[in-house]
Amino acid sequence: MFFRTLTSAATACFIALLCMTLVGPARGDEPVRIRQAYAIPVVHWASILFQKPGLARHFGHSYVMEPIRFKGSPQALTALAADEIEVGLLAYSTLAFAIDNAGMKDLRIIAGEFEDGFQDYYSAQFFVLKNAPIHTVDDLKGKVIATNGAGSAIDIAIRAMLKQHNLDAKKDVAFVEAAIPNMFPMLTSQKVDLIYGARTLAVDPAAQQAARVLFTQKDAMGTVQMNVWAVRQSFIDKHRAALVDYMEDALRAERWFLDPANRQEAVAIAAKVGKAPAAYFDSWLFTKKDQYHNPDMVVDVDALQRSLNLMTDLGYAKSSIDVKKYIDKSIVDEAVKRLR
User: Fold this and answer.
1) CATH for 277
2) Residue 200 is part of which domain span?
3) How many folded domains does the chain comprise?
4) Closest CA relative to residue 299, chosen from 113, 124, 117, 152
5) Looking at the structure, do residues 75 and 132 belong to the same domain, yes or no?
6) DSSP for 139-151?
7) Using CA atoms, how far apart are residues 202 and 198, in angstroms rounded to an integer?
8) What is the pTM of this model?
9) Is 272 helix (H, G, I), strand (E, B) or coil?
10) How far is residue 300's CA from residue 225's CA, in Å, rounded to a whole number?
């Protein structure tokens, strides 16, 4: 509740500032409210996009964007279904549950957040203790694996890797559910044998000393379209023009953050939003040590389809999903044309 109140207050201040400083044609209608989900500060765009003044040229005119933090994409999906947000940040795994299990056939994917394992960019890592007798995935037989929840994107990657090595996820290993921040302490106390290493863990000196990477998500799944922006068709029908304006501003902001010429200021903004030293972000953020951000926020349709197919193969989706039926490229395409 506090976060939402704070966010609303910050949004109001930002609107007032923009109204005083930006020059543009006045519109008779009230700006469209776009509440957008995110989970991890800095890592997810909604938390940081408009921290640099002057990039959101339509903000306060055709739309206002309110970032709202959720524990994860399942919670964001619940809010999207209840019309409590307009843009859901959904992991590919949550997207499959939304379409296949929840029957949300009116979901439309309008943009991609980031990709894992694209070319030589960063891929999520899975750790074991340095002194553990686990040197290959085959050595996980009989071991305990931490997961943040059955059917999550992390969980799917682990099970995909086990399947590659002919290990039965039900018989050959044991799974223990745990919150991601608790996984490293569980590993060092030997309560589990394999954990997912959040991006923060990959640059943590303590983790570097105690643990080593056994495999990456790319090893298990190839390139993965990790997150997408999903909107209900009814909202697009009513407010398409405002969505295009928002996407134009979002792309302008994303490109500013990705531009090496702005790196020092971008890192300073990240440090402020993430409440961490700038040196921490400077070592990886918006470089090839980070996951890949397409400068046009284009969805990697083939990568997304492969992940959904894998969910069906692993039994998490009841039927195959043709993801092309749920993609609306027109909003990003129009926004990109404006920026040329």
Assistant:
1) 3.40.190.10
2) 125-221
3) 2
4) 113
5) no
6) GGTT-EEEESSTT
7) 7
8) 0.86
9) helix
10) 6
> What are the residues whose beta carbons fall under 8 Å from the beta carbon of 170, sequence distance 6 or more?
none
Are 59 and 156 within one domain? no
Per the document, the length of the chain is 340
- Examine the domain organization and report whether 133 and 100 are in the same domain: no
Task: Kindly compute the dihedral angle of the four CA atoms of residues 165, 170, 172, 176, in this order, to the nearest 10 degrees.
Answer: 100
Per-residue pLDDT of the chain (340 residues; tens, 9 = 90+): 333 334 444 444 444 444 433 434 344 579 999 999 999 899 999 999 999 999 999 999 999 999 999 988 999 999 999 999 999 999 999 999 999 888 899 999 999 999 999 999 999 999 999 999 999 999 999 999 999 988 889 999 999 999 999 999 999 999 999 988 899 999 999 999 999 998 778 788 888 899 999 999 999 999 999 999 999 999 999 999 999 999 999 999 999 999 999 999 999 999 999 999 999 899 899 999 999 999 999 999 999 999 999 999 998 888 889 999 999 999 999 999 999 8
Last residue of a domain, one of 195, 221, 247: 221
Neighbour-count burial of 258, counting CB atoms closer than 10 A to its CB (0-12 exposed, 13-18 middle, 19+ buried): middle
Own/partner pairs for 315-321, CB < 8 Å, 24+ apart? 316/93, 316/96, 316/97, 316/151, 316/156, 317/96, 317/97, 317/100, 317/101, 318/100, 318/101, 319/100, 321/96, 321/99, 321/100
Whether residues 104 and 160 share a domain: the answer is: no
Say if residue 160 is in the same domain as residue 97.
no
